[in-house]
Design a protein that fits this description.
Helices cover 44% and strands 11% of the residues. By secondary structure, the chain is α/β, with parallel strands linked by helices.
């Protein structure tokens, strides 16, 4: 027995057999460019050690208002494959993506187009699509599948690896989707109301059974009208809603006006916390991942509306 163990150890030292499985790629071979962090994070989870992922828009950046910089153009040239949201999320960059697709002949994928049209929502104007599909984890699973399939199509040598990574990630997404449903169900129906500045949570509302009110439209380019603010104030007063929420990528001015209006009617409303809407948290934090961002939003909403925070 001892002799066998010693021989096995010598064999490892002589031929360099690793004590653990080798990575799929010795170093990242595929340069992936994504617009927002939510897409970049999914691409990193599925691409694993075969990809180097860069997000154009970091924490706190509003994709509705973002315009490409000179450095971004360099990133677009250097990328092997590009993923963007679509559905007018990056409204000011659509022409740039089309020029890259046709002029440089490289894969440029609007990931949200994978979602069936009958599952997409329209914005408050009933004409513009609502691009905030990541707020429904079950819909964001379509995006994970789209990224998986696009990577496999363009880099078929790693198909099994991408598939295994995607399967593991999709399982985590299913678990998160169930967690959100269970947590929102804890809030009494009358108080199950989420008030934010701009209309980024309609998919969350539909998926998880919580009403959403936002005086601003789906794009932060829109201004909240005085009547919209008054209506929101009256909602808070009439239904005794204890908390409203600011967003990390949106100015808090509208929310501050709503709080002041409610206080003028004798109803005290607090800011229940800061929610991640169009951008994730800082890199290296739990909220700096897609799964962590959505979980943090849910925990903040539930604890505030239950008065636990």
């Amino acid at each position: 027995m001892m002799r066998t163990a010693i021989m096995a150890l010598l064999l490892i030292l002589l031929v360099g057999v690793p004590l653990q499985a080798q990575a799929e790629c010795a170093e990242p071979a595929i340069n992936v460019l994504a617009t927002v962090g939510m897409i970049a994070d999914v691409a990193q989870n599925i691409g694993g050690d075969c990809v180097q992922v860069r997000a154009l828009m970091g924490p706190g950046v509003d994709p509705h208002l973002y315009t490409a910089t000179e450095r971004d153009v360099e990133y677009l040239f250097d990328a092997d494959i590009i993923f963007y949201g679509g559905l007018h999320l990056e409204a000011r960059m659509i022409d740039v993506f089309e020029q890259v697709r046709t002029g440089l002949n490289k894969p440029v994928v609007a990931v949200s187009e994978r979602i069936p049209e009958n599952l997409r929502l329209l914005g408050s104007d009933h004409h513009t699509p609502d691009p905030h599909v990541w707020m429904d984890v079950s819909l964001w699973m379509y995006i994970a599948e789209q990224i998986r399939d696009s990577l496999i199509e363009n880099y078929p040598d790693h198909a099994a690896y991408f598939t295994a990574n995607a399967d593991a990630y999709l399982a985590q997404m299913r678990d998160l989707d169930q967690y959100i449903r269970e947590q929102i169900a804890r809030i009494p129906q009358e108080q199950r109301v989420l008030v934010t500045a701009h209309d980024a949570f309609q998919y969350y509302s539909r998926a998880y059974g919580i009403e959403v009110f936002a005086p601003q439209g789906i794009s932060t380019q829109a201004e909240a009208g005085v009547q919209n603010i008054r209506d929101t104030v009256q909602l808070l007063v009439d239904r005794h809603i204890p908390a409203i929420f600011v967003e990390t990528s949106v100015s808090p001015r509208v929310i501050e006006a709503i709080i002041a209006g409610a206080q003028a009617q004798g109803h005290n409303v607090v800011i229940g916390g800061s929610l991640f809407s169009d951008a994730m948290g800082d890199v290296g934090t739990p909220e700096g991942t897609y799964l962590g961002m959505i979980r943090a939003n849910t925990d903040t909403i539930v604890s505030s509306l239950l008065g636990e925070s």
